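It is time I had a proper look at our fold encoding. Can you supply me with one protein entry, sequence and fold together? It will help me judge whether the discrete encoding reads sensibly. Leave the record below and I will have a look:
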Amino acid sequence: MPKFTYSASKDIEQTSGYGFIIEDVAIQPSTYAYTSSGATANAVTVTDKSAVIILTSDATLAMTLPNGDVIGEEKKVVVTAGTDSLQLIDAGAADIRGAGVTTVGDVYSLVYTATDTWKLLA
């Protein structure tokens, strides 16, 4: 199999070797926006498999994350507005971070470690 390199300046280039390399191009992760208000349920199960969850909520919220596809998969939860308190729960019903006050700009980085288990990266 030949080696393919994609770059913004050269497009796709084929050379001898193996693999597929991406150079000087930003890769944007898939995102999922979740918005809630005090009028909606305070518990939600995320079914979207996006790498980044953008969270806007004006209420206390318990959010359950789905199983990852592979061990080592990463997910980020970004608080963009509101959210008095956020509790992150994995698919095995374990509390990932504990309920606690959040502020705008908080970011939680998580890694999938095994079936039903997400861990908060420090």
